[in-house]
């Protein structure tokens, strides 16, 4: 291995260490307490080294959120591909979205700015909208299958996304004072009613 390749590999290793340290700190202390100094201490480098790789904390958060959206995108596609009808696909996609949110709370909070400022403004990537696009695709196919007006697919799918994301956000951020009746079964009933309405 040449000197250039060795240096490149070292840079990639340090960059990965920075991202991993930031995520580990966030899991133990929360995103709000994250700082460049804490990240530097965690990887046993000076703060200027961290700044060599990322302009600021926002850049680190954005990179981690992209990773979260990529992981979510993969889970949604896997869920969709297990079923053949648009109704089954829609149920599976929403279920996978719900499971991702509560199995990966730190990612989800960062990805959507729950309890913190949303990162990545103006830097949207394809993965950011994969859930909405998959919901739209299923909704459109169900409406078309039922012989209804497909012009309504965009509005209807947006309404479902808002309901799903809203319920998750409330449950994630207001666990102390929300009704015990708001749970996964409420979501399942909402999606079933949505499908019947198309």
UniProtKB/TrEMBL annotation:
Q: Which InterPro entries match?
A: Homeodomain-like_sf (IPR009057), HTH-type_Tx_Regulator (IPR050624), HTH_TetR (IPR001647), MT1864/Rv1816-like_C (IPR025996), Tet_transcr_reg_TetR-rel_C_sf (IPR036271)
Task: Name it.
Answer: TetR family transcriptional regulator
- Per UniProt, residues of the HTH tetR-type domain are 12-72
Where do transmembrane segments lie in this chain?
none
Q: Does the keyword DNA-binding apply?
A: yes
Q: Which organism does this sequence originate in?
A: Chryseobacterium artocarpi
What Pfam families would the database entry show? TetR_C_33, TetR_N
Q: Does the keyword DNA-binding apply?
A: yes
Q: Which residues bind DNA?
A: 35-54
Q: Which UniProt keywords apply?
A: DNA-binding, Transcription, Transcription regulation
Lineage start: Bacteria, Pseudomonadati, Bacteroidota, Flavobacteriia, Flavobacteriales
User: Matching SUPFAM superfamilies, A to Z?
Assistant: Homeodomain-like, Tetracyclin repressor-like, C-terminal domain
GO molecular-function annotation terms?
Answer: DNA binding
């Amino acid at each position: 291995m040449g000197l250039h390749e060795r240096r490149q590999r070292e840079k990639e290793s340090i960059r990965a260490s920075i991202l991993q340290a930031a995520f580990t700190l966030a899991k133990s202390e929360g995103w709000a307490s994250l700082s460049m100094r804490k990240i530097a201490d965690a990887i046993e480098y000076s703060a200027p080294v961290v700044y060599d790789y990322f302009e600021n904390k926002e850049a680190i958060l954005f990179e981690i959120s992209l990773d979260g959206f990529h992981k979510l995108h993969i889970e949604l596609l896997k869920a969709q591909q297990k079923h053949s009808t648009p109704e089954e696909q829609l149920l599976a996609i929403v279920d996978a979205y719900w499971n991702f949110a509560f199995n990966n709370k730190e990612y989800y909070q960062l990805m959507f700015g729950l309890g913190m400022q949303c990162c990545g403004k103006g830097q949207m990537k394809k993965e950011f909208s994969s859930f909405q696009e998959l919901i739209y695709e299923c909704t459109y196919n169900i409406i078309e299958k039922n012989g209804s007006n497909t012009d309504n697919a965009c509005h209807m799918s947006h309404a479902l996304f808002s309901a799903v994301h809203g319920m998750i956000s409330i449950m994630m951020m207001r666990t102390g004072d929300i009704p015990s009746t708001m749970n996964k079964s409420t979501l399942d009933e909402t999606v079933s009613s949505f499908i019947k309405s198309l």
